[in-house]
Fold this protein.
Amino acid sequence: MLFLQFQCSNDLKGTFKLNCKRQPEGIYDYKLFIFSQRYILLLNVYCEEKAMKRIGLVTSGGDAPGMNATIRAVTRVAYSYGLEILGFERGWEGLLTNTFRGLTPRNVGGILHLGGTILRTSRSPEFKKKESIRKAAENLALNNVDALVVVGGDGSLHGALELSKQTDALIVGIPATIDNDVFGTDETIGFDSAVNTAITEIDKIRDTANSHDRVFIVEVMGRKRGFLALTIGLTAGAETILVPEVPYSLDQIVRTIEKSAAKGKKSGIIVAAEGIGDTHKLVKEIEEKAGVEVRLSVTGYAQRGGNPTARSRLLANLFGNKAVELLMNKQGNRMVALQQGKIASIDIKEVCSNEKQLDLTLMKLAQTLAT
Ligand code: F6P
């Protein structure tokens, strides 16, 4: 609400209330003097500080282990500040259909260790449309939601940015995706859990690879990026890591297999990001060129589920706490982040207009270590 107070030198005074769509940031106690020949008019324009009372929470896009821990953390921290929390169901869909439930410290009990999200989630192509975003903004206003916490990956944060342009509610994002491909944060909630799920599987695959003198391609998720594959490959001791950011050469893969064999190492693990292309085809190509048996194991959706690791839970707790703190300080359009070991925040616009870089020095290290 914008207030316009006027006071005229002839003792006439009053206040107008202006319902403006967006609060004009930074215009507080703004004084204007207007002189005329007969009167002096004093105008005082200020914004009423709106108390934060009710926040919304939504988990959107692909689920990630630690989303439940995040729901618990946001709810309990928000409750400690006396806030009411509405959990929108099935991602953006809940905002479009106005489907939500009240979250309380009690009803988010017993979920800290669970994978998935109790609020459920969805891919919501609908939310790319302007009318849908407008509808979501209307529903936030209808329910008197003062702020919205959006938990999700890259697509969800883009949605959050678009929504922020249409609503008065403050928006804060919490990065949660197994892909770890969100700019501005060193790590996303769920990434560490997915890495651990994959390396547990690869440790088992090593046993059978060694027994049969076989090469295994283990395909891991990560969308179009190689963050998962690189960390999984490095921590599982893979002989070769294939990521979309670096075009691979069949000759190079075969050379690595031959060099290993010459040293007496007859089995091997190739970790391939799903974004590199057709891994079935690659199996055949390597078999033909290297003359070794190659098998493919696709880790797939198992990486998205299961109990979050301690690290994913810790991030969930710290990010959840920071998100509510930002809102209590009236800071919107921000995403909480881990930056050089510290919990920080970054403008969502910056997150959405930049691409996170893969640390290719880790690739070099993985090659050195896998000799
Ligand atoms: O973004 C997480 C992720 O698991 C990616 O690694 C994968 O490419 C994608 O989601 C799969 O999407 P969907 O759940 O729509 O099949």
The longest helix spans residues 191-212. Confidence is low (pLDDT under 50) at residues 21-27. The longest strand covers residues 40-47.
